[in-house]
Amino acid sequence: MSEKILRLGIPAGSLRRATVELFGRAGFEISGSQRSLQPSIDDEEIRLTMLRAQEMSRYVADGILDVGITGYDWIKENGSDVVEVAELSYSKATIAPAQWVLAVAAESKVEKPGDLQGGIIATELVNVTKAYFAAKGVDVKVEFSWGATEVKARLVDAIVELTETGSSLQANNLRVIDTIITSTTRLIANKQAWGDKFKKEKIENIAILLGAAIDARNRVGLKLNVRRSDLDAIIRILPAEKSPTISDLADSDYVAIEVIIDSRTERSLVPALKRAGASGIITYPLNKVIH
Predict the structure, then answer these.
(1) Exposed, middle or buried by CB within 10 Å (0-12, 13-18, 19+), for 132?
(2) Angle CA(114)–CA(119)–CA(125) in degrees, nearest 5?
(3) Would you state the torsion angle of the CA atoms of residues 78, 82, 85, 90, taken in this order, to the nearest 10 degrees?
(4) d(C-alpha 78, C-alpha 61), whole Å
(5) 135 to each of 103, 112, 123, 205, how far by Cα in Å?
(6) Would you call 203 exposed, middle or buried from its count of C-beta atoms within 10 A (0-12, 13-18, 19+)?
(7) Using an 8 Å Cβ cutoff, are 10 and 206 in contact?
(8) 3-state secondary structure of 253
(9) In total, how many domains does the chain have?
(10) Domain of 74, in residue numbers
(11) Residues 197 and 89 in one domain
């Protein structure tokens, strides 16, 4: 008989706060000390553990955890044989994918990867970096870096470092030569757990809710009242991707409209709707959007 507990790993370190907030928007409350590696979650069918993202895929592949959240970069680095259930477009700084880049000091004479023949590369992403240079036929020595890798760009020939915004590279006066790998956060499952009916359904439920919370992050709900005579003009202004919900009001001369819009269009759309005759305009945040 299958154990009715799902062993879920979420990343400690820099992704911890963003992950806890995402679960909160998805409807799960994670509580416990900021230093606790086994916080609690308000779901009696989930046993939660926090691990470094770098280790997560190994624990999932080995069956110590049923499901976990980590980066695509660490799945590749560890060579982990896992089920990639969903891509989760969130990170500690932005919603854009993170990139591991090959960088050198700004004053370096290196212009392309081939110029590093015989050189030394410092990085935390050792295996992926070795595979990158091997594929290009460039012989280099790749050394593991324990941190502060940007500083080492002037001690070795080049570094491979993770960047989301590029600000740290600029601050250290480094120049990017190439992108080694682009990575997003993934929800991954152990293959045996994925074959278990209870665990698979539980994992799929988590994936749906987390995905819905991410989709809602950049959207808002919009409600407004419109005179029937202005309805066609208002409909032409609204985004065309989805048909709005239109409801009759007690005053037969008016209807109510409700639609979900991209939050980036809100500031230009609302004034346009007001000028076109809309009234009672309300915008509100969304927790989840499920397609």
Answers:
(1) buried
(2) 90
(3) -10
(4) 10
(5) 18, 14, 18, 39
(6) buried
(7) no
(8) coil
(9) 3
(10) 6-94+185-216
(11) yes
Q: β-strand 245-248 against 158-163: which pairing, if any?
A: unpaired
CATH number for the domain harbouring residue 230: 3.30.70.120
3-class SS at 259? strand
Q: Find where tokens 């409350």 sit.
A: 29
pLDDT tens digits for range 83-119: 999 999 876 555 568 899 999 999 999 999 999 999 9
Do 206 and 225 reside in the same domain of the chain?
Answer: no
Rounded to whole angstroms, the Cα distance separating 134 from 90 reads 31
Q: pLDDT (tens digit, 9 = 90+) per residue, 233-281?
A: 999 999 866 678 999 999 999 999 999 998 888 999 999 999 999 999 9
Q: How many CB atoms lie within 10 A of CB 125?
A: 25
Token readout for 195 is 């074959």
Task: State the Cα–Cα distance between residues 281 and 152, nearest whole angstrom.
Answer: 55
pLDDT at 187 over 90: yes
Measure the CA–CA gap between 86 and 152, rounded to whole angstroms.
Answer: 35
Residues 171 and 240 in one domain: no
Residue 53 lies in a domain: yes
Nearest to 177 by CA among 124, 119, 127: 119
